[in-house]
C-alpha cells in the first residue's frame, strides 16, 4: 500500500485542470470575463475532440475489415477513461460558467 494515496483518484496522462488554468492565464481571462463561445460551436468542437482521440495508430486506417472491428474496439476500450475525464473537466457548465473561456481560447 502506498502511503498518502487517495484510493478514489485516477492518475491521468494529462493534468487537465492545470492546462485550463494556464490557458486562462495566458489569455488574460478573468472571473468576470464575458464569453463569446456559442453552445453550438462548443458541442461541435467537443465531438471533434472525442472523435480524434486515438491511442492505437492502426485505428486510423485499418486495411482489413475484420481486423478493423477488433482494433476499433481495442481503441475504444483504451481511450474511454480519458474521454470521461475530458468530458468531466471540459463540461459545458465548467467552460461557460466557471472558466468563462471565449471562442479563441477554447479552440
Main attributes of the structure:
107 residues; 58% helix
Strand-helix topology:
Elements: H1 16-26, H2 39-52, H3 65-89, H4 92-99, H5 103-106
Short description:
The chain has 5 helices and no strands. It has one domain.
What does this structure look like?
With 107 residues, the chain is mainly α. The chain has one domain. 58% of the residues lie in helices and 0% in strands. It has helices spanning 16-26, 39-52, 65-89, 92-99, 103-106. The longest helix has 25 residues, at 65-89.
Residues in β-strands, percent: under 5%
What separation lies between the terminal Cα atoms?
A: 41 Å
Q: List the uncertain runs.
A: none
Rg over CA atoms, rounded to whole Å, is 17 Å
Helix share of residues?
55-70%
Amino acid at each position: 500500500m502506498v502511503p498518502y494515496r487517495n484510493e478514489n483518484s485516477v492518475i491521468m496522462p494529462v493534468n487537465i485542470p492545470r492546462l485550463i488554468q494556464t490557458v486562462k492565464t495566458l489569455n488574460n481571462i478573468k472571473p468576470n470575463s464575458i464569453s463569446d463561445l456559442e453552445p453550438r460551436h462548443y458541442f461541435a468542437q467537443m465531438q471533434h475532440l472525442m472523435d480524434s482521440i486515438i491511442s492505437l495508430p492502426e485505428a486510423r486506417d485499418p486495411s482489413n475489415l475484420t481486423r478493423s472491428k477488433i482494433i476499433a474496439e481495442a481503441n475504444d476500450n483504451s481511450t474511454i477513461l480519458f474521454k470521461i475525464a475530458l468530458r468531466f473537466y471540459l463540461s459545458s457548465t465548467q467552460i461557460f460558467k466557471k472558466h468563462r473561456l471565449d471562442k479563441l481560447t477554447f479552440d
